[in-house]
Specification:
QueA; single chain; QueA-like; 10-stranded mixed sheet; transferase; 28% strand; QueA_sf; Thrombin, subunit H; cytoplasm; alpha/beta; queuosine biosynthesis
């Protein structure tokens, strides 16, 4: 196993420079299928960082911007029904978001309270508190997560959002079975209605473990992937189980489990040596690859829990292109994007996205950043 310490991180200037206003009408409130579209009919912005050229298209036409020999790296993690109802000793109803499963059967969790049809963080948990779950399960909250990852929003008065906890399931109940019976996909306020778990899965997901969907790959269909492969595009897998995100306060990324197969590392290294393009599908892929890629561009197989944080100062050594969604104002994901593209390029593309009415969030539109 490999455990990688976090790089030192001070909120980069890109976050401040990208402090734009996201109009509510540009938040994708439902899956594209509910809007009368197919998965791959969402919009696609293609931008070339070498000359700032921008093309507006649809995702189903992504093959027009890829070429034989390109290596596209996907994250095959499947999304858990990670939100489970819980009750405090005083009878207060809350929701537990299961985030990251750690060694020794510990979990990183977030506790939230109901607010109408949605939830918001709950900051009044005491160390050692045990929450009651359905069917006799319990969740014991041991200690706040590392101080380095406490919520940045000072309105919480420094209270922790994330906790280290132990989940006790009744009898021989398996986790996936319990979550299938009692859990639901994590949903934030911009998604107004509940949607089945199938809407939160990519078509190539094959190992359940992500608290939230690795959404950059959601628009791929089996037919589209087949078409790309038939035209010489290579698709290679890795795994990174994503933890919970939050729009209330943009914390730094914390540890997440990853696995890079040996064949994936080898195909990436061959493509890099031959000068072919390496395209990450999502920031999760970049984080996983950067964990095992040296500064001189050699990618190694491996697995473990990564705390790697990608910043402009650190740079990106594993890929030269990225397919990603559009990220919220001041989101730390923007630091990773600036590590790949210039701040000027990001400002141009995000301004174009706002002017052209692209949709944000996991059910929204996509952005392909090419060399």
């Amino acid at each position: 196993m490999m455990y990688v310490n976090a790089d030192s991180f001070h909120a980069p200037d890109v976050i401040q420079s990208m402090d734009f206003i996201l109009p509510p009408e540009l938040e994708a409130t439902m899956p594209p299928e509910a809007r009368g579209l197919t998965r791959d009919a969402v919009r696609l912005m293609v931008s070339y960082r070498s000359d700032d050229h921008i093309v507006h298209s649809r995702f189903q036409h992504i093959g027009a911007f890829l070429q034989a020999g390109d290596v596209v790296v996907i994250n095959t993690s499947a999304t858990m029904r990670a939100a489970v109802p819980a009750t405090r000793d005083d009878g207060t109803s809350v929701v537990a978001h299961l985030s990251t499963r750690l060694p020794a059967d510990l979990w990183v969790v977030e506790i939230r309270q109901y607010e109408g049809k949605t939830t918001r963080p709950f900051f009044h948990i005491q160390p050692g508190e045990t929450l009651s779950l359905l069917d006799g399960a319990t969740l014991t909250l041991h200690t706040p997560h590392d101080q380095h990852y406490r919520v940045l929003d000072r309105s919480s008065k420094g209270s922790p959002r994330l906790w280290i906890a132990t989940l006790h399931l009744p009898g021989a109940t398996m986790l996936e079975s319990y979550l299938n019976s009692h859990g639901s996909p994590i949903r934030y306020s911009y998604v107004r209605d509940e949607w089945p778990i199938e809407y939160y899965q990519t078509v190539y997901a094959n190992e359940v473990g992500s608290a939230e969907m690795p959404s950059a790959g959601r628009a791929f269909t089996a037919a589209l992937l087949t078409s790309l492969i038939a035209n010489g595009v290579q698709i290679v897998p890795l795994l990174l189980h994503t933890g919970v995100a939050s729009l209330e306060g943009h914390e730094l990324p914390y540890e997440e489990f990853y696995r890079i197969p040996a064949i994936t590392a080898r195909m990436i290294n061959i493509a890099r040596h031959e000068g072919r393009r390496l395209i990450a599908v999502g920031t999760t892929v970049v984080r996983a690859l950067e964990t095992v890629t040296t500064t001189d561009g050699v990618t190694h197989p491996g697995e473990g829990w990564t705390r790697t944080i990608v910043t402009p100062e650190r740079g990106i050594h594993s890929v030269d292109a990225l397919l990603t969604g559009f990220h919220e104002p001041q989101a730390t994901h923007l630091a990773m994007l600036e590590a790949l593209a210039s701040r000027h390029h990001l400002q141009l593309t995000y301004q174009a996205a706002l002017e052209q009415g692209y949709l944000w969030h996991e059910f929204g539109d996509l952005h392909l950043i090419l060399p």
